Structure formats: C-alpha cells, structure tokens
Amino acid sequence: MLPPRRSLAIAACAVLVLPMLAGCDTDTASSTKPTPKAVVTTDAGAAEASRAAAEAEASRQAEATKQAEAKASQDAAATREAQAEASRAAAEASRAAKEEADRVAAEASRQAEASQQVEQDSSSSQSDHRIAPFVGGGRSSSSGRGGHAYYSSCKEARAAGAAPLHRGDPGYRSKLDRDGDGIACE
User: Fold this and answer.
1) What is the pLDDT of the chain when averaged over all its residues?
2) Where is this region: Disordered (predicted)?
3) Distances in Å between the alpha carbon of 121 and those of 65, 128, 135, 161?
C-alpha cells in the first residue's frame, strides 16, 4: 500500500483536477453544438469564402507570374543590349588600335626612309669629295673643298673630312706631305 502522505497528496490533486475537467467538458459541449441552419449557412459561407480566397490567390499568382515574365523579358532585353554595346565598344577599340598601329608603322617607315635618304646623301657627298680631286687632273676648284683652307696638322684635316689632301687642293702644304709623293695626310 501507499504511505499515508502519498495517498493524501493524490486525493488533494484529484479534488482540484476533477472540477476543472468537468467544467471544460460542459463549456466545450455547449459552445460547439451549432444549430443545423447555422451549420448549413456556415458551410455554404465557408465554401464561398474558400472559393473566393482560392480565386484571389490564383489571381495573385497569375499577376506575380506576369510580373516575373515581364521582369525576365526586360532583363533579357537589357542583357542583349549590354552585349551589343560591349561588342560595339570592342569593335571600336579594335579599330582605334589598328589605326594607331598603322599610323605608328607609317611614321616609322617615313623616319627610316628619311634616315636612309640622309645616309645616301652623306655617302654620295663623301664619295664626291673623294672623287673630285682626281677629276680635274689632281686639281679641284675652291668651291669643291669649301674654299681656301689651312690645316696645321693632318689631325685637323681628318677632322674636317679633307684628308687625304692632294697637291693643288686647298689646305695642301708640303709640310703635311711627309714622303713627297703629292698626297698629304695619307
């Protein structure tokens, strides 16, 4: 058997819990029993309300779908437009780079041609100076070597581009011709 304290505690709990349970059943039973007319009206009203709610939900979903499709088409159009713009920009950049490369190549070609022309002119003028003393029987005009000149040494004559000097050339002196053959600063 149970000790007297436990049985007393169980009895007290039963006394408190039973009236509460009895009161719950009574209130619940009286409030949930509707009249047959109310049930029919409530069922019809509930069916109408659920149908209206379903239609409203369907229309909301249809509207949301339309908005999503419109947004998707706008996004697709924006993407196509951005791709077209990027392609145009790339083509423009490519064209500009090609024009710049062509311009640089043309400039380099012009500079190379100009330097080649200068080189040819200078080499032809040097060959003219070398050939000129022999053309006139060893004598050249004063304009061929730049007029009257005086060179104190062969080093100066070479620096001026006049070496070798032949007898009769401006700047020729017997002092510069060491071996006496008529050609100084050999």
Assistant:
1) 80
2) 27-186
3) 83, 10, 20, 15
